[in-house]
Automatic annotation (TrEMBL):
Its main location: cytoplasm. The gene is arcA. It comes from the Bacteria. The active site is at C394 (amidino-cysteine intermediate). InterPro entries: Arg_deiminase. Belongs to the arginine deiminase family. GO terms for molecular function: arginine deiminase activity. PANTHER family: ARGININE DEIMINASE (PTHR47271:SF2). It comes from Glycomyces tritici. It is found in: Cytoplasm. Keywords: Arginine metabolism, Cytoplasm, Hydrolase. The lineage of its organism: Bacteria, Bacillati, Actinomycetota, Actinomycetes, Glycomycetales. It catalyses: L-arginine + H2O = L-citrulline + NH4(+). This is Arginine deiminase. Pathway: Amino-acid degradation; L-arginine degradation via ADI pathway; carbamoyl phosphate from L-arginine: step 1/2. SUPFAM superfamilies: Pentein.
């Protein structure tokens, strides 16, 4: 693909000049977090909501200043919800929750049917409590506490990277592993299936399939994906994605990378991200430790060849066809700084072009190392956003980057 015939959509690498990205500006769903539910909702603290929004606006502002189109989930959803078939699909998926029961389910469908698209879009992300819902003739409702949820909030919606991922010209709506996040894909799925902008885009995956999260999928170079397998993505999910990607035809090698099943390394993109064509920022201990299985297919995904495991960085260099991938370490050589900055998403950077990356300002040591290596680092504040344990990469889902060859 040259710049002239590059598709309106598509992502063939982590670093091609970023053209369009999907973000979610955090809103009322963060106000639902309490010290009792934050663990189950996958937050490590209780964010100050206005400050988190201001930080997010700085992130979006940085992208806009660099010519990136910013699409917001809230606006896309509201536009979809103008369509009767999209409203119907949403209502069916929300009211299918067996915890509601027949009566409350029916009442909730009627409640949702009365909401304007924008309000409906907000409720779907912010959730709805018993007291906000109002009166009901159901036993379920009578037996709920006032602040209990009729619709659960989705505070992790701002991590748009996880619920969908673009592979070439196609999009994979993923299958999220954690109960607190599962409903996110009914909303991203709705956008990709119903929004006129995306309706014609080929769909590679769906939420009923084996667990797969976008934070585990790295487009290392054209034709080459790395897929982390650990707390979220399962081996079965990685295998399914590989088959589908081979079948679709743009990918020739999928590297499946086992990662520790711990919160600190919930996704591959918490351990490493690409900051340049052949340079990665990586948590130092992972450099030797990470291994990869190399998956290829001679028949478009019908059968798979599985080789390895061998050292991830060697497998990656082989698959990409370069001598080596240069590593810039998170933190300093001392373990403590490295561990602190890895935890604070020091290597969860978002490349805007080869050698230009957005990073949280707090990771001063990692950012200085990146700068020393010649990477232009655009810093954003993240003291509140960071309590959700995600950085610039997870808070963004690129849908268009310039082709790697032209970047
Ligand atoms: N791709 C990522 N690293 N995403 C971060 C997601 C953070 C979110 N709180 C979760 O636990 O799921």
């Amino acid at each position: 693909m040259s710049a002239n015939d590059a598709p309106a959509f598509g992502v063939d690498s982590e670093v091609g000049r970023l053209r369009s990205v999907m973000l979610h500006r955090p809103g009322g769903e963060l106000r639902r977090l309490t010290p009792r539910n934050n663990g189950a909702l996958l937050f490590d603290g209780i964010p100050w909501v206005e400050r988190a929004q201001a930080e997010h606006d700085r992130f979006a502002g940085t992208l806009l200043e660099h010519g990136v189109e910013v699409l917001y989930v809230g606006a896309l959803l509201a536009e979809c919800l103008e369509l009767p078939e999209a409203r119907e699909a949403v209502s069916v998926s929300v009211t299918a929750d067996p915890r509601l029961g027949q009566t409350l389910g029916r009442e909730l469908a009627a409640y949702l049917a009365d909401l304007e698209p924008e309000r409906l879009a907000a409720v779907l992300v912010e959730g709805l409590t018993k007291e906000e819902f109002g009166t009901s003739g159901s036993l379920r409702h009578k037996m709920m506490r006032p602040t209990e949820f009729v619709i659960d909030p989705l505070p992790n919606m701002m991590f748009t990277r996880d619920s969908s991922v673009w592979i070439g010209d196609a999009v994979a709506v993923t299958s999220l592993a954690m109960p607190a996040r599962r409903r996110e894909t009914t909303l991203t799925g709705l956008i990709y299936h119903h929004h006129p902008r995306f309706a014609a885009v080929p769909k590679l995956y769906d939420p009923s399939l084996e667990h797969l999260e976008g934070g585990d999928v790295l487009a290392l170079a054209p034709g080459v994906l790395a897929v982390g397998v650990g707390e979220r993505t399962t081996p079965a999910g990685a295998e399914r994605l590989a088959r589908k990607a081979f079948e679709h035809g743009r990918i020739h090698t999928v590297l499946v990378v086992p990662i520790a099943q711990r919160r600190a390394t919930m996704h591959l993109d918490t351990v490493c991200t690409m900051v340049d064509r052949d340079r990665m920022v990586m948590y130092a201990p992972a450099e030797q430790r990470l291994e990869a299985y190399t998956l290829t297919s001679a028949d478009g995904g019908a059968s798979l060849s599985i080789k390895g495991p061998k050292r991830f960085l060697d497998a990656a260099a082989d698959a990409i066809g370069v001598d080596r991938i240069e590593i810039i370490h998170t933190g300093e050589r001392d373990v403590v700084t490295a561990e602190r900055e890895q935890w604070d998403d020091g290597n969860n950077t978002l490349a805007l072009a080869p050698g230009i990356a957005v990073a949280y300002e707090r990771n001063t040591v990692t950012n200085a190392r990146l700068e020393r290596a010649g990477i232009k680092v655009l810093t954003i504040p993240g003291s509140e956003l960071g309590s959700g344990r995600g950085g610039p990469r997870c808070m963004s889902c690129p849908s268009a980057r310039d082709a790697f060859a032209d970047a």
